[in-house]
Predict the structure of aspartate transaminase.
Amino acid sequence: MRMLPAVMKLSTRITGLTGGGSDGWDVFYKARQMIADGIKVTELTIGEHDIRTDPAILDAMAQSARGGHTGYAMVPGIGALRDKVAERISAQSGVPTTRDNILITPGGQAALFAAHHAVCDEGDTALFIDPYYATYPGTLRAVGARPQAVHTDPINGFQPRATDIAPYAAAATSLLINSPNNPTGAVYTPETMQDIAQVSVAHDLWLISDEVYDTQVWRGRHISPRSLPSMSERTLVVGSMSKSHAMTGSRCGWVCGPADVINHLITLATHTTYGVPGFIQDATLFALDAGPELEERIAEPFRRRRAMTLEALANQNVVKSVPPDGAMYIMLDIRATGLSGEEFANALLDTHQIAVMPGESFGQAAAGHIRVALTIDDAAFVRALDTLIGFAHSLA
């Protein structure tokens, strides 16, 4: 008798990354399938710039590759790039920083994974703020930690307070924050950062600060918690070129932290990613050397479309928002329609072929909201926004 092949068992860690449910991106996948089927869809879903990587950066990348920088690069990152990132962080935060504090990683996502590997043991509780970027819980599960969301409220502008965090802090090892925030656009105030620092010190938490939107601040100012008293030794900062320089596909980011932590993370990189391609790093160095003018030019369309959105919302009261102070998104409150964020997003896609992300994709704190990415040209964006608002009014 012919034996059937055995069904091999996969690890519980890999099969449980999404916690046994959906990863929350069903509307996005549905929109992409519609596009593949030849249906024209207006995508306001992911944080992908409508302006692509600057040709001068691509030229630097090509020149480096043709010049031979295609072999194995130094695992921690090339020295000149680590120096440049350290210089950038020193100028921004006021905290002395050297290459010993920097590990170059294949994008911000790899940096988040590495940072949590550095501080979390199997079974440790790792806190993160809700609403959150969709990969956060899975990243924490991937390192063996137990993810615990800390709920924030739109009434408070989605700013986490000490009273929100403290009930979970005693049993936790780490806290992950993101300012400017994806998906809400909240830029954490000095008071919020002081609350976060106070709880972190009081409960001996590692703080992991995702600062990939640090060049997209429309109101207030970006504060890195590493700059606060007693925080530099317990803070790991995650940065990336994806949003600041429209280099999403280049996959270049970094972790900044205490030198002894970075030494251990270099060992982790040696056993996992084995570094970032040299020609990508050379292009990254070229982009950073271009200075803040390039960063401002890349950020400007999102500032402009934020203003357009707030103007469109001003003369009606069905679709509401907490005005975003940063990042390339706006979170819209559509609860007046009687639909959940997921129901509204699906109905909008089916009826008008406009794709947005349900707030529920980013946690329960954003239930009844949708996230709109400010990532298509102005004229198309205004048309889509007017249609979205009109559709909400028809439901309400």
Notes: The CA atoms of residues 244 and 351 lie 34 Å apart.
